[in-house]
Amino acid sequence: MARRASSFVCQNCGAVSQRWQGRCESCGEWNTIVEEGPSAGIAAQAARGARGGRVFGLEALAGGSPPAPRIASGLDEFDRVMGGGLVPGSVTLIGGEPGIGKSTLLIQACAALARRGSRSVYVSGEEAVAQVRLRADRLGLAEAAVELAAETSVDDIVATLRQGRRPDLVIIDSIQTMWTDAAETAPGTVTQVRASAQALIRYAKTSGASVILVGHVTKDGQIAGPRVVEHMVDAVVSFEGDSNHHFRILRAVKNRFGPTDEIGVFEMTGAGLAEVPNPSALFLAGRDASAAGTAVFAGMEGMRPVLVEFQALVAPTSLGMPRRAVVGWDTNRLAMVIAVLEAHAGLRLGQHDVYLNVAGGLRVSEPAADLAVAAALVSSLTGAHLPADAVYFGEIGLSGAIRPVVHAPARLREAAKLGFAKAVAPMMARSGAAPPLPVEGVGDIASLVAGIAAAAPPSRRSTGRATFPSPH
Ligand code: TYD
Ligand code: MG
Question: What pTM value is reported for the model?
Answer without folding.
Answer: 0.80
